[in-house]
Design a protein that fits this description.
The protein is α+β, with helices and mostly antiparallel strands. It has 6 helices and 4 strands; from the N terminus they run H-E-H-H-E-H-E-E-H-H. The N terminus is likely disordered.
Length: about 130
């Protein structure tokens, strides 16, 4: 059996993507995949716009990808319209093929240990306004 220290770097390399490297350990990307002109993209972005402060507080960055030949599309292989949350570690944390309420993502993020540590360092409850 291999030591854990050998397995962890291998897992991270498998999840990494050059397009997301600038965000590693700094931001939680939310990827929105779809075709050019897809009304679902517009609807999703409107929901994200309404929740901008909450998403910013959770260190999210929204990336819309409409090019099936892009590195992101090839890496994540969405099937049509898809919303994917990527964690600080670069790993996929959530995938949905329908319009996603930002509160669903916020609740998921708030349960993550790294997010709970962030909130404790700031002295705020993650479930109380903007946490």
């Amino acid at each position: 059996m291999l030591p854990v220290s050998v397995l962890i770097p291998f897992a991270f390399v498998a999840l990494s993507n050059p397009a997301l490297e600038p965000f590693a350990w700094e931001k939680r990307p939310i990827l929105v995949f779809g075709t050019e002109g897809d009304p679902q993209i517009d609807e999703q972005m409107a929901l994200f716009s309404e929740a901008a402060l909450e998403l910013e507080d959770r260190r999210n960055v929204i990336i819309v990808e409409t090019d099936p030949s892009s590195d992101l599309w090839q890496h994540f292989r969405p099937n049509g319209f898809t919303v994917i949350l990527v964690g600080l570690d670069g790993g996929e944390k959530f995938r949905n093929s329908r319009i996603t309420d930002p509160s669903e993502l916020n609740e998921l993020i708030d349960r993550m240990p790294m997010r709970q540590n962030e909130v404790m360092r700031r002295g705020r409850n993650p479930n109380m306004g903007g946490g």
